[in-house]
Amino acid sequence: MIKTTYDAKLGEMMAGTRPQVSSEIANHYSTRMVAAFRYGSLAIAGVGLIQAVVFALMGSWLVVAMELAVFVAGLAIYVLIRRGHLAFGVLVGQAALLLIAIIMGLLLDVPTSEAPRISHLYLLVVAALGYLNYQREKSRTQLALIGLCLLSFIVLASAPITSPFIVMPDVARTIGTWANAFVATAMLAACFHAMQAELTRKDKYSRDLMAALWRGEFNLVYQPQVDGSQNTVGAEALLRWNSPQRGSVSPVEFIPQAEKLGLMVTIGGWVLERGCCTLAEWGASPHFRHLSLSINVSTSQLMHEDFESFVRDTLVKTGADPRRLILELTESVLVTDIELVIGKLNALRELGITIALDDFGTGYSSLSYLRRLPIQQIKIDRSFVQDAVNSSDSASLVKNIVLMSRDLGRTVLAEGVETMEQHNLLAQFGCIEFQGYIYGKPMALNDFEQRIEVETRGLA
Ligand code: C2E
Ligand code: CA
Ligand code: CA
């Protein structure tokens, strides 16, 4: 049953059907895209400068002023992008170009018997640039600018304004019409090319991520979790992607991407299945049956309508003991429908599963939520643990988190412990479980099992 849902989804994606791409798709651009913006702004500045020189030679000084404004706008976008203010640079540049195109179109560049209006073509280029920027960072200002550009284009293309404020020499109008039509069309084509390149890049990343499951490029590593005496009581399963093209990709990089591409339900499902298989194997061995396994669950996975039944089916299929399974959620679940989350967590609790709140303190934690959510374990984030030994304020904060959690009947695990000093302080505050490089880095399953065997022999 689980397998079928899974295979159907995988099959659908591998068959080339476009995966369900979230609207908040990848928020960073390839270097190629940044370069496209940079060269685009330079091209705008170049067009402005050349035309300023041409009109200066003809003595049309008002036109020169307009063209110099175009040059300055193009240059300003270029400088802002170079300094890393891509989104701001593009917004400011668009606003300036929109204004210039409207003034040019209404006052100077009006259709005559010699030449049609041409400058409004650049409004389509500005709108296309805006669209590229909107894909990168959604904002209402950007949407408004795109709308204004398109509206101005329609007005300037249709309005019967025939008497120019300033009359330009006919020869300049005729040559300018051809030159500007050529440049604007080339820029529009470059924008479409950039959009296509960006879509292809995202599609490839998405296809590679899905194919990674089929090709077995994902694997789990296991980081020990210990008690106050540093005996291993369990492990956290952490995902790794060993891509032949990209090398070892960090989950910090590919999980947000997978999330945005709508793939995390499928990938997270694989993690759960793999983890439960390991847990079932541990359950069958006297050396390992005392161990718990923590598995990370992303918010999109939890909120999937079939999540609880998927977990139940996976437990039945693999034979894993639910009492040894811990599902880790981050505080981001708290910004979704809290009643729905509570219902889902209660259903998981009824299966015998333990729920942990990961990265505690970094997100939206509120005491009232903490009281209401059926959570048994709180994982104090690494940043608090590491600050606790350096600052008395942080230390008292951590101490209070532990006290409060214990009062609410939750156990506390300290994450990211790297020194004995941190361990001792946290133990003194009342932490009963620990995880961090000092006890062991994430390791292959075999290495983790060997460690347990050595520990068991040591205790015997
Ligand atoms: P996390 O759940 O907070 O996992 C702990 C991360 O901290 C791991 O990074 C681990 O290697 C690292 N870490 C553990 N001890 C120490 C320490 O003492 N010092 C330092 N500096 N780091 C330590 P990793 O494996 O790179 O995972 C990063 C994040 O990716 C995880 O953070 C988790 O949010 C996410 N992740 C990993 N696997 C999965 C998964 O299967 N599903 C989901 N949804 N997220 C996952
Ligand atoms: Ca975790
Ligand atoms: Ca964590």
Quick summary:
It contains 17 helices and nine strands. The protein has 460 residues and is of the alpha/beta class. It folds into two domains: 24-203, no CATH class; 216-459, Alpha-Beta Barrel (TIM Barrel).
Mind explaining what this structure looks like?
By secondary structure, the protein is an alpha/beta fold. The chain has two domains: 180 residues, no CATH class; 244 residues, TIM Barrel, CATH 3.20.20. The chain has an eight-stranded mixed beta barrel, surrounded by six helices. Strand 6, helix 13 and strand 7 form a beta-alpha-beta unit. The N terminus is likely disordered. The chain binds ligand C2E and calcium ion (CA) (2 copies). The site of one calcium ion has 4 residues, from loops.
Helix content: 55-70%
| N- to C-terminal distance | 43 Å
Give the biggest sheet.
8 strands, mixed, barrel
pLDDT < 50 runs, ≥5 residues: 1-27
**How many runs of DSSP E, i.e. beta strands?**
9
Order of helices and strands: HHHHHHHEEEHHEHHEHEHEHHEHEH
* Total count of domains: 2
The CATH homologous superfamily name of the largest domain equals: EAL domain
What gross morphology would you assign?
Answer: elongated
Major sheet strand order: 1-2-4-5-6-7-8-9
What CATH architecture label of the largest domain applies?
Answer: Alpha-Beta Barrel
